Amino acid sequence: MSINSLEFRKTLANLASSVCIISTVFEEEIHGITISSFTSLSLDPPMILFCLGKHSKKYQYFQDTKLVGVSILNSSQDYLSNNFSRNHENYWDSVDIMLGEQSKCPIIKDSLGFLECGIEAKYDGGDHTIFTAKVINHGKLNDFSPLIHFRSEYWAINSKE
Ligand SMILES: Cc1cc2nc3c(=O)[nH]c(=O)nc-3n(C[C@H](O)[C@H](O)[C@H](O)COP(=O)(O)O)c2cc1C
């Protein structure tokens, strides 16, 4: 059976996912991309993974970097998800950040939590690359609710089952 990519996207859109901003410093400039492909990988050693599309204009900054920061967005930060998924200049303007103590990568203030990580390995994943990384610092920042991406829209969790 041949897989129609539009239909494939529609099926995958049924996966509710958290939204993160992955950041790095490359040649003294800061860069960031919206991702939903972030997941925990290993507890011992502490590791995470994420996937980046090879065709993204920002891909090269992450392909050549050793350290990344991850900010887990809260439900009021959908505008940041949109901001970091578009390719426009000055997209860091008016984004409230702090620099990670270990990595110096930007972390978005008011996000739910952050991680600072050192890239360990990269694996081919079709039109994406799978990055695995060791966590060198992390923390919870507040008790807000998470930003959820589901069926191409942003959602907030309002009740507990
Ligand atoms: C909610 C959401 C989740 C996304 N998740 C990923 C992801 O996991 N990996 C990825 O490479 N791009 C992801 N993207 C797309 C990127 O943020 C961005 O749009 C893309 O890299 C832009 O490519 P360009 O620089 O060529 O314009 C996501 C976008 C949104 C809005």
First-residue to last-residue Cα separation:
38 Å
Number of domains: 1
- Average predicted local confidence, pLDDT: 96
Main sheet makeup: 7 strands, antiparallel
Give the topology string: H per helix, E per strand.
HEEEEEHEHEEEEEE
Radius of gyration: 16 Å
- Structural shape: globular
Bound ions, cofactors and other small molecules, one mention each: flavin mononucleotide
Name of the CATH homologous superfamily: Electron Transport, Fmn-binding Protein, Chain A
What is the count of DSSP helices, taking H or I runs of 4+ residues?
A: 3
CATH architectural name: Roll
**E-strand count:** 12
Give the CATH level 1 class.
Mainly Beta
**Could you please say which CATH topology applies here?**
Pnp Oxidase, Chain A
Q: Record the strand order, biggest sheet.
A: 3-2-6-9-10-5-4
Helix content: 10-25%
- Structural class, by secondary structure, is mainly beta
Domain Flavin reductase like: 12-156
Protein name: FMN reductase (NADH) NtaB
Organism: Candidatus Arcanibacter lacustris
Enzyme class: oxidoreductase
What features would you highlight for this structure?
single chain; 161 residues; mainly beta; Pnp Oxidase, Chain A; seven-stranded antiparallel sheet; three-stranded antiparallel sheet; 3 helices; globular; binds flavin mononucleotide; FMN binding; NADH-dep_flavin_reductase; FMN reductase (NADH) NtaB
Describe this structure in words.
The chain has 161 residues and is mainly beta. It has one domain (16-156): Pnp Oxidase, Chain A (Roll). It is 13% helix and 45% strand. The longest helix has 8 residues, at 5-12. The chain is globular, with a radius of gyration of 16 Å. It binds flavin mononucleotide (FMN). Flavin mononucleotide binds at residues 19, 33-37, 51-53, 56-58, 81, 85, 87, 149.
